[in-house]
Structures are given as C-alpha cells and as structure tokens.
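Re: weekly structure request thread

Next one in the queue (51 aa):
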Amino acid sequence: MNAEALITMLVTQGLVFSFAVYFFYKVLTIPPKQEPDSFSENDDDIERQPK
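Done, posted below.
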C-alpha cells in the first residue's frame, strides 16, 4: 500500500470515528424531553360511559 492510500484510509477512519463519538456524546447529554401527563390532562374530560 502506498503512502497516499494509507493517509486516505487513516483520515477516513478518523472522520468516521469522530462523527460516531460526537453523536454518541450528543445523545447521552441531551436533557430529557418533558412529556405531558396524560392523567392530569384528562381531569376535565367527561366520562364516555355513564356508571
């Protein structure tokens, strides 16, 4: 393998590894999304079937 091919291979592998590490870190550090509480939102709803 000549030097140009080796440099190209190492640069490509370095870029792919860097992107993988960056996005893995980003996924692990995002704050959790606030999800609505379905029970508290339905407090004012009228019952579907009368008792």
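Residues 10 and 16 are 10 Å apart (CA to CA). The chain is about 60% helix and 0% strand.
Next request, please.
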